[in-house]
Design goal:
single chain; binds protoporphyrin IX containing FE; about 75% helix; about 300 residues; mainly alpha
C-alpha cells in the first residue's frame, strides 16, 4: 500500500493554510465588516439621538466629527495604492488591508451621508459627496472583479507564470520551424505565417474579446488538415507532427489570451477606480477649503 511521506500539518500550520485560501471578504471572521457595521450603527444612533432638532448637518459638532473622520478615512483608503506596492505579511497583510478597505470604504456611505445632514445642492460640497458615492459604487463592482477573476486566473494558469506562457509559445514556434523545415514550401509558408503573424493580443478590444476570431495559426491548421489526405508517405507523417504542434500552440494561445483578458479586466477597473479617487481628493480639498475659508 502506498504511504505518504508528508508529515502531518500542525494545527497552527493548518490555520495558516486556511487563512491563505480565505477570501479578503471573509478575512478573520469578517473582522472589518463588524468594525464598519459598529461604526455605522453608532453614527446613525448619535444622529437620531442628537439634540436639538432639526437634525445636525456638517456645521455642528457632530457634523465636524463625521466630516473629519470621513476625510481621514478617504486618505487612508487612498493609501492602499501605496500599501499594495510594498510586501508585508501578518496583522496588516495586504489581505487584511484590502478587507478593511472594502468594509470601511462602504461605511463611508453612512458617515459621509450623515455628515451632509441631507442638505444637497448644486455646489462643490455636493460634488465632493457625489464623487465619493461614485468611487464607493465603483468599489462594489471591483469586489466582483477581485473575487471572481483571480480564481479564474488561477485555474487558467495551472501554476504557470506569464513568463512560462511566453516561453511555452516560443518553444512551440522553434519546434514548428524544425518540423516544417524539410516539407514543401506550401506547408512551410503556412507555418511561417503562424509564427510571424499570430499575436496573443493586439489592442484593448482584442485583449478583452472572448472569441477574437481565427488568426494565422487557426488558418494554417485548417489548410494543413485539408492538405493532409492529399500527401503520401513520410511527408504525411511529418505533416501530422506539424499539425499536432500547431494544435498545441492553439491550446497555449487560448490560455495566454484568457490570462491577458482577465488581467486587462482588472486593469480597466482600476483605471476607473483610481482616477475617480484623485478627482475625489480634488473635490474634497475644494470642499474643505471653501468651508474653512469662505464660509
Ligand atoms: C472613497 C472611497 C474609496 C477610495 C478613495 C478608494 C481608493 C482606492 C485606491 C487608491 C486603490 C488602490 C488602487 C491601486 O493603486 O492599485 C483601491 C483599490 C481597491 N478598492 Fe477602493 N477606494 C474606495 C472605496 C472602495 C470600496 C467601497 C470598495 C468596495 C466596496 C473598494 C474596493 C477596492 C478594491 C477591490 C481594490 C483593489 C484591491 C487590490 O488591488 O487588491 N474601494 N481603492
Amino acid at each position: 500500500m502506498a504511504r505518504s511521506n508528508a508529515a502531518p500539518l500542525s494545527a497552527a500550520a493548518k490555520r495558516r493554510q486556511q487563512a491563505a485560501h480565505e477570501s479578503f471578504l471573509k478575512h478573520k471572521g469578517y473582522r472589518y465588516f463588524k468594525v464598519a457595521a459598529a461604526l455605522s450603527v453608532l453614527a446613525i444612533l448619535v444622529y437620531f439621538l442628537h439634540d436639538p432638532i432639526p437634525r445636525p448637518n456638517g456645521g455642528t459638532w457632530y457634523g465636524y466629527t463625521l466630516g473629519t473622520m470621513s476625510a481621514l478615512l478617504i486618505l487612508w483608503l487612498t493609501a492602499l495604492g501605496i500599501r499594495k506596492r510594498r510586501i508585508s505579511a501578518g496583522r496588516w497583510s495586504l489581505k487584511a488591508w484590502t478587507s478593511a478597505h472594502v468594509y470601511l470604504g462602504l461605511s463611508l456611505l453612512v458617515l459621509g451621508t450623515l455628515h451632509t445632514g441631507f442638505q444637497f445642492g448644486w455646489n462643490v460640497h455636493t460634488l465632493a459627496y457625489g464623487v465619493m458615492v461614485f468611487v464607493i459604487l465603483s468599489g462594489l463592482i471591483g469586489i466582483y472583479f477581485y473575487t471572481v477573476i483571480p480564481k479564474k486566473m488561477g485555474r487558467n494558469r495551472e501554476e504557470m507564470t506569464r513568463e512560462q506562457m511566453v516561453q511555452d509559445l516560443n518553444a512551440l514556434d522553434r519546434q514548428l520551424t524544425q518540423l516544417a523545415g524539410p516539407l514543401p514550401s506550401e506547408i512551410t509558408n503556412l507555418v511561417s505565417q503562424s509564427i510571424q503573424k499570430t499575436k496573443v493580443a493586439k489592442g484593448v478590444f482584442s485583449r478583452l474579446a472572448k472569441n477574437p476570431g481565427p488568426d494565422a495559426t487557426d488558418k494554417a491548421v485548417k489548410k494543413l488538415r485539408q492538405l493532409h489526405p492529399t500527401i503520401d508517405g513520410r511527408e504525411r507523417e511529418a505533416l501530422s507532427a506539424v499539425i499536432d504542434a500547431l494544435e498545441r500552440k492553439q491550446v497555449s494561445l487560448a490560455r495566454a489570451r484568457r490570462h491577458v483578458r482577465y488581467k486587462t479586466m482588472l486593469e480597466l477597473w482600476l483605471y476607473f477606480h483610481v482616477p475617480m479617487t484623485f478627482l475625489l481628493i480634488a473635490a474634497l480639498s475644494a470642499h474643505i477649503i471653501s468651508v474653512f475659508f469662505y464660509w
